[in-house]
Amino acid sequence: MATLTAGQAFPNFNLPADDGSHVSDDRLKGKPFVLFFYPKDDTSGCTLEALDFTALAKDFAAVGVPVYGVSPDPVAKHCKFRDKHGLQVPLLADEEHALLEAVGVWVQKSMYGKTYLGVERTTVLVDAEGRIHRVWPKVKVDGHAKEVLAEARQLAGAKA
């Protein structure tokens, strides 16, 4: 499992989004961005996290830091999730787990005595040079989006 650390280059990626586009590190080059990795569309914690980032989407946009959610769910499921909850953050599909594995969030988990592979809820703030600015591992949803926004504001202010 890869361990993300501040200062290292963020892995290359190119993933389909819920709006029909593709989002890649090349497309985002030159501006900071946030990726929040979450386990599954339309589950309680994942819904709360996506709604919290949606509530702050305009604040992130105001500081020039786009936010993207990433899970292994397919684009069609992302579209249903987005529409059901009125989400305002793009959702990226990593069905092959390429980015999830590259950043080390595709991990062995355990529930009710059974082990399985899944996403460890993690958020990464990447700077304009494509380097990791900060990592939030094993995220607890409550208040998390506000904490990420505060860090994004600091990063954007440092570059202004």
How would you characterize this protein structure?
The chain is α/β, with parallel strands linked by helices and 160 residues long. It has one domain (14-159): 3-Layer(aba) Sandwich (Glutaredoxin), CATH 3.40.30.10. It has helices at 25-28, 44-55, 57-62, 75-85, 98-102, 144-159; strands at residues 14-16, 22-24, 33-37, 67-71, 91-93, 106-111, 114-119, 122-126, 132-136. The strands form three sheets. The chain has a five-stranded mixed beta sheet with strand order 5-4-3-8-9. A two-stranded antiparallel sheet has the order 1-2. A hairpin with a 2-residue loop joins β6 (106-111) and β7. The protein starts with 13 loop residues before the first strand and ends with a helix.
Helix-strand blueprint:
Blueprint: E1 14-16, E2 22-24, H1 25-28, E3 33-37, H2 44-55, H3 57-62, E4 67-71, H4 75-85, E5 91-93, H5 98-102, E6 106-111, E7 114-119, E8 122-126, E9 132-136, H6 144-159
Parallel strand pairs: 3-4, 4-5
Antiparallel strand pairs: 1-2, 3-8, 6-7, 8-9
Keyphrases for this structure?
160 residues; alpha/beta; Glutaredoxin; five-stranded mixed β-sheet; two-stranded antiparallel sheet; 6 helices; 26% strand
Order of helices and strands: EEHEHHEHEHEEEEH
Helix content: 25-40%
Q: What's the CATH C level?
A: Alpha Beta
Span between termini: 35 Å
**Name of the CATH homologous superfamily:** Glutaredoxin
* Rg value: 15 Å
**Main sheet: which strands, in order across?**
5-4-3-8-9
Poorly predicted sequence stretches spanning 5 or more consecutive residues? none
The class by helix and strand makeup works out as alpha/beta
Number of helices, where a helix is a run of at least 4 consecutive DSSP H or I residues:
6
Overall strand count? 9
Using the coordinates shown, work out and report the CATH topology: Glutaredoxin
What characterizes the major β-sheet?
5 strands, mixed
Mean pLDDT rating: 92
The 3D shape can be described as: globular
**What is the number of domains?**
1
| Gross CATH architecture | 3-Layer(aba) Sandwich
Strand-residue proportion: 25-35%
